[in-house]
């Protein structure tokens, strides 16, 4: 590795499940407020789960957003974005994972990791070209299933994907909604592909993120490999508990 710690390149990452742009129980469409809050964080790379794609407007919405929600959120701040469609509805609406980046996305691919049943899940893998860094940065946006058996299969697929698509020396950030309330992913991901969870590494335990108003479960995660992390944080309850049922996470990543 040629970069010294003193000259490490830093980028801020954020992950949030945006619940299709609605408050808890779908009471109110709050995507414009959500965009303002995401912008204030100032992250270089944002991992989004449950983001609406084409035909994103909703019949309950008092004001609609015509473009895909990830384009609306990225507008003017994140010039690069990628979307992976997971769930398609009968009327043509669909949602999935998205990555918004201030750095060029030179390649991306969405992997369908759905297991038998109605749940549709995906892993969105993007390759970022960060100025001043000689090796491309790999990021994977994750949304795993609710069933334990499904999550175990999906974690194995994630490990297989990392082994097959991410060079051993490349910085890697894996973030999103793991639904891993039993905290089984930490040991498996570190043992199989060398990924460390940033809150576990910094504070000894994963962050509690769900439900956002009174977080009890550690569902959302940020894992890294070939990178170090400075002060990972759970974003403040105000305004976030009003904007999502998951508390967002953010961290400064040093390459």
From TrEMBL:
InterPro entries tied to this protein: Endo/exonu/phosph_ase_sf, Endo/exonuclease/phosphatase, GPI-anchor_lipid_remodeler
GO biological process terms on file: GPI anchor biosynthetic process
Pfam families reported in the protein's UniProt record: Exo_endo_phos
Domain Endonuclease/exonuclease/phosphatase: start-end pairs: 14-246
GO molecular function terms attached to this record: catalytic activity
Any one annotated GO CC term: membrane
Protein name per the record: Endonuclease/exonuclease/phosphatase domain-containing protein
Lineage, opening ranks: Bacteria, Pseudomonadati, Pseudomonadota, Betaproteobacteria, Burkholderiales
